[in-house]
Write a structure and sequence with these properties.
It comes from Bradyrhizobium macuxiense. This is Polyvalent protein metallopeptidase domain-containing protein. InterPro entries: MPTase-PolyVal. Residues 50-175 form the Polyvalent protein metallopeptidase domain. The protein is mostly helical. It has a domain at 48-183. 36% of the residues lie in helices and 5% in strands. The protein contains six helices and three strands; from the N terminus they run αβββααααα. The chain has helices at 48-55, 88-102, 121-140, 150-164, 168-174, 178-183, and strands spanning 61-63, 69-71, 76-79. A three-stranded mixed beta sheet has the order 1-3-2. Strand 2 and strand 3 form a beta hairpin. Helix 3 (121-140) crosses helix 4 and helix 3 (121-140) packs across helix 5.
């Protein structure tokens, strides 16, 4: 660039770092810095027979976070808050899916379908078992849940398992654990029956 003696306005960008802390990490802050969460009010009515059914299982069911899963290491079912679901039936269908996974623990049915890693044939088979278990449990509880977004991602895995083994659907249905879940009920009657 040729030196002309003209003055120019130029911008020089530079990065500057800041330390940021959560309000709970700072002692002595005025109360105005601590936002109080509004109390959660349930807008979806619970389904009493379904709530009783899952309470009778004796499973460690924890609520919080955005994901639903069964953690075999700590032997607990993790569920998003009830209010995070579109309707009560979707909550209980998801809980039925995770409760079916819960039955695979060595202290219960000790189900091992050869799962070694996420997405393998053993994983797909366990997910098929859990989905069938959820469907059987929902039918027994007279629930008609909406389709979940996870169904689409599982279909490819299920199709591969079903192509490789023509009897896989029967094997999965046999492992679906609906009888095990029903047997844990106080009356040991069908969950849809009135006691």
């Amino acid at each position: 660039m040729e030196a002309t003696g003209e003055e120019r306005d130029t911008q020089i960008h530079y990065m500057k770092g800041y330390s940021v802390f959560n309000a709970e990490q700072i002692d002595g802050l005025p109360v105005s810095y601590h936002a109080q969460p509004e109390p959660v009010t349930e807008t979806i009515p619970r389904i009493e027979c379904a709530g009783s059914f899952f309470a009778a299982l004796g499973a460690d069911i924890r609520h919080g976070g955005p994901d639903a899963y069964y953690a075999i290491g700590s032997d607990h079912i993790q569920m998003p808050p009830f209010e995070a679901f579109q309707d009560a039936e979707s909550y209980y269908a998801t809980l039925a899916h995770e409760a079916t996974h819960w039955t695979r623990h060595p202290k219960r049915l000790d189900r091992d379908l050869g799962r070694k890693r996420f997405g393998d044939a053993g994983y797909a088979m366990e997910e098929l078992v859990a989905e069938l278990g959820s469907a059987f449990t929902c039918a027994a509880l007279d629930l008609n849940p909406a389709l979940r977004t996870e169904h689409a991602s599982y279909i490819d895995h299920w199709l591969r398992v079903l192509k490789d083994d023509k009897r896989a659907i029967f094997t999965a249905a046999a492992h679906a654990a609906a009888d095990f879940l029903n047997a844990r009920q106080p009356s040991a009657a069908s969950p849809g029956e009135a006691a």
